[in-house]
Write a structure and sequence with these properties.
The chain is α/β, with parallel strands linked by helices. It is 33% helix and 19% strand. It has one domain: TIM Barrel, CATH 3.20.20.70. Bound molecules: D-xylitol-5-phosphate and zinc ion.
Length: 231
Amino acid sequence: MQPKIKISASILAANAVRLEDEIKKVEKAGVDLIHIDVMDGHFVPNITMGTFIVEGVKRIAKVPLDIHLMIEYPERYIAAFAEVAGKNDFITFHIEATKKPKEVISLIKNAGLKAGISLNPNTSTDSVENFLDIVDMVLVMSVNPGFAGQKFISDVLPKVARLRSISPDEMDIEIDGGITTETISQAVQQGANVIVAASAIFKTDNPDNAIKTLRQIAEQTPRKKYILSKK
Ligand code: DX5
Ligand code: ZN
């Protein structure tokens, strides 16, 4: 069975002083996840949100959180994020940011959350292939992480296809960066099923319509068929 299409709204492009309204608006339009971009100014050249914001969002959001850690030494911070998150929430870390990926995955899973592992546009899928059996999601970055509003890097699409071909059927493959009504179908066609969008939702005049259109395009896109490896 093909995994369900899920739309994850990244609040990086939301109006920060009206976060509650912004979250309610996208939930009403049917988003599946709220994507929170945590940046430390070291792993990426930008500083954004920490546990304080995650805790606040958790009090408002009805859908699960999709916490995207773009921070060095994620192993040092999992406990703090897990404490303010909940059972169905994802915590995703970057393979480039730690020497202890197994430990990070265990920390997330032992806290009862879902674990995701992410790779930058220039990172090969080899770096995450050993972990596909123990994570719930792989996040393929389609921009260099740090900012919303960048252009989609289509060179990452073969990595999506490769990961889909070697992953358990039910595993979520997420794509993040530069998603628009044009690029979404390319990602879905190659096997991505969790679609992050910030600008394409929050920087439009009609976020409700934007979400529905993105979902409709994704659900209507034929996905490549693979002989999936049974594990
Ligand atoms: C970039 C972040 C993305 C970002 C996407 O580092 O990880 O989640 O918010 O923004 P858009 O959809 O505008 O490319
Ligand atoms: Zn992100």
